[in-house]
Amino acid sequence: VGWVDFESADAPAQIAALAQNPKLVGLRPMIQDIADDNWMLNPILAPAFEAMIAHNLTFDALVLPRHLKNLATLLERHPTLCTVIDHGAKPEIRDGKFDDWAADMATLASETSAYCKLSGIVTEANADWTAADIAPYITHLLSSFGPDRIIWGSDWPVSTLATTYRQWHDVALAFAGADHGKIFGGNAQKAYGLARN
User: Distance between CA atoms of 133 and 117, rounded to whole angstroms?
Assistant: First the structure.
């Protein structure tokens, strides 16, 4: 998953050129780091999003809870844009915030075809997090998006700020249960157009 300057006048041409590389499956603008919360709705970006659709590239939405209503608007404008919401939109677990994030994620799950990446959760929790601390957030994502639209991600190496690869893998695997084959591989293959081996 790569990056281009979506604001550039030649963004569609850049996207078309990059799409020729079979290893490129999507693009991820760093929305979480952009000061303007309305950035993604700027009409100047529409040609870039349309180019992604035209070239079958997936949009990785690296957003925070404050961006979720705008993301819903964006996906209403571009309903055929294959989208993966990164890190469950980074819920503010250590601050105990849940309701607004949960409502916005449920809306995205029911009103769009977006996938959601189950990753980056533990780095949003307290340093001494337990499975019980993150359970409401993971359970909500699983119940909202269902087993066919959740994609596990390691978030390695960033995840090592809060956990080991093995610990996060095992915790997520326990939540995935019988749907682990989809969540730990099958759904990613669908979302990113990856051929099965």
Answer: 19
| pLDDT tens for the 197 residues of the chain, in order | 999 999 999 999 999 999 999 999 999 999 999 999 999 999 999 999 999 999 999 999 999 999 999 999 999 999 999 999 999 999 999 999 999 999 999 999 999 999 999 999 999 999 999 999 999 999 999 999 999 999 999 999 999 999 999 999 999 999 999 999 999 999 999 999 996 54
**Which distant-in-sequence residues (6+ apart) come within 8 Å of 60 by Cβ?**
1, 26, 27, 28, 83, 84, 86, 117
- Three-state DSSP state, 58: strand
Amino acid at 26: G
Burial 161-188 (b: 16+ CB within 10 A, else e): ebbeeeebbebbeebbeebbebbbebbb
The pTM of the full predicted model, rounded to 2 decimals, is 0.96
